[in-house]
Q: What sequence folds into this?
């Protein structure tokens, strides 16, 4: 298979720029969690897209950010910066007409590697006219000469289809990397915990810390139904009551939505139970972090 193409494509950028949204669109199904809040993605995760002609392995990364005062923040920044080494292509995401300190930080990392970098300028649907982006592009090109520049909206099929063709152009000729049937390098349990965390990120107001986390405690197939029990970790009592909500309504809503997403992903019925537990300072405790999979 001389002409088969395969490779790793890291997607990097500041928090909230649309990395995970773009990846889900590129692979054509929901794998990576997304929300309107920054720092949704915490772990590097591979999303695999295989055809008869190529295999693209997208590497989703946590947004590179400045405030890394907690152990979990430095873990996330490390996950992101280490992900750009040993890949074949980088998709560098910036938001149209937005440039900040975090973008500078991302640029520092990108400047250190020597692979094709496609500058993706996302969320152009927010602009009144696409022309408005030209001065912005000119400013970035003074800082860095990207291999290609691609303005897009991750929401638009036409854009993501074209982006895929561009990626294919730079994808190296080589043998397949993962089994063509696999979708990710993570196990189902990981994805399940993430789907629950997504609903927490989406529903909880901004006063709740983004660093809430989920641990899976039961994961069993009984009578063709997955029985899943998960514990949600928060820092203090007041947060616990927000997560549970008035008469348990919030937790119920999160459970219902998470169950739908998980059933869709696993293609099986599931029975989901959620609990909330207070674990003070977990996000700044290296030992707790590692027990929850942040090694
Ligand atoms: N208007 C608009 N919104 C977008 C677009 N792409 C993503 N978004 C929104 O931007 C928000 C952040 O998207 P994510 O995909 O979670 O961003 P991310 O870069 O993965 O963020 P982190 O994981 O926190 O680093 C979500 O509310 C998305 O719906 C786009 O092209 N246009
Ligand atoms: Mg993300």
A:
């Amino acid at each position: 298979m001389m002409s088969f193409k395969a490779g790793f494509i890291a997607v990097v950028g500041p928090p909230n720029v649309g990395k995970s949204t773009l990846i889900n669109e590129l692979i054509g199904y929901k794998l990576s969690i997304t929300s309107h809040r920054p720092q949704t993605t915490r772990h590097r995760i591979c999303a695999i897209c295989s055809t008869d002609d190529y295999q693209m392995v997208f590497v989703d990364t946590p947004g590179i950010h400045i405030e890394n005062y907690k152990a979990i923040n430095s873990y996330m920044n490390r996950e992101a910066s280490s992900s750009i080494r040993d890949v074949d292509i980088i998709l560098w995401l910036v938001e149209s007409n937005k440039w900040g300190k975090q973008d500078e930080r991302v640029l520092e990392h990108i400047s250190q590697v020597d692979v094709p970098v496609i500058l993706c300028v996302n969320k152009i649907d927010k602009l009144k006219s696409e022309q408005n982006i030209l001065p912005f592009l000119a400013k970035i090109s003074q800082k860095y000469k990207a291999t290609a520049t691609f303005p897009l909206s991750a929401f638009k099929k036409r854009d993501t289809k074209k982006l895929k063709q561009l990626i294919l152009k730079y994808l190296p000729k080589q043998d397949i990397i993962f089994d063509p049937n696999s979708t990710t390098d993570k196990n189902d349990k990981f994805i399940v915990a993430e789907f629950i965390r997504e609903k927490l990120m989406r529903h909880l107001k901004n006063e709740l810390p983004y660093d809430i986390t989920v641990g899976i405690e039961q994961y069993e197939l009984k009578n063709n139904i997955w029985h899943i029990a998960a514990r949600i970790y928060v820092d203090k009592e007041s947060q616990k009551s927000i997560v549970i909500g008035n008469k348990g309504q919030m937790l119920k809503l999160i459970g219902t939505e998470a169950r739908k997403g998980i059933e869709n992903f696993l293609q099986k019925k599931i029975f989901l139970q959620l609990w909330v537990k207070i674990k003070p300072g977990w996000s700044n405790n290296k030992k707790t972090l590692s027990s929850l999979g942040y090694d």
Remarks:
- The domain at 188-291 is CATH 3.30.300.20 (GMP Synthetase; Chain A, domain 3).
- The chain has a mean pLDDT of 92.
- The radius of gyration is 20 Å.
- The beta strands are 5-12, 45-50, 54-60, 89-95, 117-122, 148-151, 213-222, 225-234, 269-278.
